[in-house]
Amino acid sequence: MSSHIIECIPNFSEGRDAGVIRQIAAEAEKISGVKLLDVDPGKATNRTVITFAGEPEKVIEAAFQMIKKAAELIDMSRHHGEHPRMGATDVCPLVPVSGISMEESVEYARELGKRVGEELNIPVYLYEYAATSPVRKNLSVIRSGEYEGLENKLKDPAWKPDYGKAVFNKRSGATVIGARDFLVAYNVNLNTTSVKLANSVAFDVRENGRVKKEKGITVLDEKGNVVREPGLLKSVKGIGWYIKEYGIAQVSMNLTDLRITSVHAAFEACCQSAEKHGLRVTGSELVGLIPLQSLLDAGKYFLNKQKLSSGVSENELVKMAVKSLGLDDLAPFDPQKKIIEYVMQDKNKKSLLQLDLEAFADETASADPTPGGGSVSAYIGALGAALVAMVANLRPPKDSAKDWDYFSGMAEKAQRVKKQLLQLVDEDTEAFNRVIETFKLPKNTPEEKERRNQAIEEATLHAMEIPLQTMEITLKSFEIIAAMIQYGNRNSVSDAGVAAICCRSAVYGACLNVKINATTLKNQEKARPYLMEASEKVREAIHLERDALDRIESTLKMP
Questions:
Q1: C-alpha angle 391/396/397, rounded to 5°?
Q2: Distance in angstroms (rounded) separating the CA atoms of residues 520 and 369
């Protein structure tokens, strides 16, 4: 799975013709690195919302091909539906999910908009974070007048498209493209069937709050506008409703900016309000998918609330979030189906991390050259990071100069190092296999030989970069090891020592992997900076290990 994931949710002005919808959705499935997540047609609205995600460049390509296909299949001059619309592809938002910033997503939105405008002759407006002016930020403002008013709108200089010509495209209309935050549909369960009480909670927490009243009379300001009492949470829309299927009332919310209001903050606010109204929150429900980071943040929040270390594994954090939020209250909660990064994973891709300890050892001992020393080095480094994370998670001595937050933070750092090194276990094997594949390239002509030799050199350099990453990341563990030797639980100082030995071995082993790859390069000048960097990191690791072990041996000396 790519560490950079962006989601795209284009809305197409066709919700009744299943054949047309299938053809548009199929364009996403043609692009490697993109996963189709949902197709939601609406007959009354005559509109289909399609959700897919993947690597940013691949998602942009898929979005363009879908917009192109919609332009071929949908004739807006014949379109009727209840939902506001102005084009065959009405709106196409990009949402950063993982490893990508909003600023980067805006650039991708502009890249897509430019291509649609120039290659498909469809007027394109940018909205939300990609908007070129404040007035164009809001989708409803851009779409005012809809398709029927578009021809006259394009004649107004104030509504010149951001991309494409200001010429009415009768068949395709116009398309709005932008970048927005991830929207989470989140329902909180209450121990009541009363919609009135559920609404009371919703009004307490949602940003728009409730209408202010005094003695039952609505309060107006000096201009005659209704005065509202704001709710507890920003970027939250909410309402109370009764769900017959479950036999309970819920507070149904849209969290429109998780950076401002998180899932756990919304849950806690509902708990606070419910108690005020004599109610109890029994759990909650996620509608659709959620980014992994949201549940990791929730898991850390609830652990910290319990005065427990948040430096535990990703799986433990997710479990803590699910139980604390009561996400399994109404039905079993399967993280593999609800967390977008997990859904994106290629389940058919072979991974060494799927093996148990014995199977990994057996795989290493087989006649196959992979996994080799590079993967094993990364795994040893991960074990060292895991071991020092354990030390940081233990209760520190009462006389420690550092508080519990310090140790929890150190454990989190160690967990990040561990996760990065585990990813390199597979990446090292993949890099070696890539080198092997280049040797299979044809070499019948001088041109083919040249291309083959160049491919071999490039693949070999990449195979040197992976162990260098292993070395660099592993070295970060020594700061945590030194801290645990100085401040941590004295009964586990030996574990910190074993972690140091693992980390030094990982760095040294990765260095050998750099060197063995360097011997196969025809251009040894390219290898020189890699070798110099590797040697420097080995010297650093040996020094840090020696320092750690000397301090431990001094601590362990019998009185």
A1: 130
A2: 16
What domains lie within the chain, and their CATH numbers?
5-179 (3.30.990.10), 184-344 (3.30.70.670), 352-556 (1.20.120.680)
Q: Please name the residue ranges forming H helices in 251-339.
A: 263-276, 292-305, 314-325, 335-338
Q: State whether residue 428 is helix, strand or coil.
A: helix
Residue where the block lists tokens 């990040």:
416
d(CA 350, CA 178): 36
Q: For residue 371, is the peptide bond before it cis, meaning its omega torsion is within 30 degrees of 0? A: yes
Q: Return d(Cα 290, Cα 286) in angstroms, integer.
A: 8
Q: What is the dihedral of CA 549, 550, 552, 553, to 10 degrees?
A: 110
Cβ atoms of 521 and 460 closer than 8 Å: yes
Distance CA 476, CA 463 (A): 21
Per-residue pLDDT of 456-496, as tens digits, reads: 999 999 999 999 999 999 999 999 999 999 999 889 999 99
As a whole number, mean pLDDT of residues 437-452 equals: 92
Is it the case that residue 253 has pLDDT exceeding 70?
A: yes
Phi, psi of 46 (to 5 degrees): 50, 55
Share of the chain above pLDDT 70, in %: 99
Whole-number Å distance between alpha carbons of 179 and 176: 10
CA distance 259 to 297: 11
Strands 89-98 and 11-12, sheet pairing = antiparallel
Whether 83 is a known active-site residue: answer yes
- Specify the pLDDT at position 558: 55
**With b meaning 16 or more CB within 10 Å and e meaning fewer, what string describes 475-497?**
bbbbebbbbbbebbbeebbebbb
Rounded (5°) CA angle 547-553-554: 90
Cα–Cα distance list, 162 to 127, 142, 151, 152, 175 (Å): 10, 12, 16, 17, 11
What is the C-alpha separation between 34 and 24, in angstroms, rounded?
A: 14
Encoding tokens for residue 4?
């950079």
Catalytic residue, candidates 4, 83, 277, 462: 83
Among 90, 162, 204, 428, the active-site one is 428
Confidence of residue 222 (pLDDT cuts 50, 70, 90): confident
- Tens of pLDDT, residue by residue over 490-517, are 899 999 999 999 999 999 999 999 999 9
**pLDDT above 70 (res 54):** yes
Q: How far apart are CA 270 and CA 205, in angstroms?
A: 7
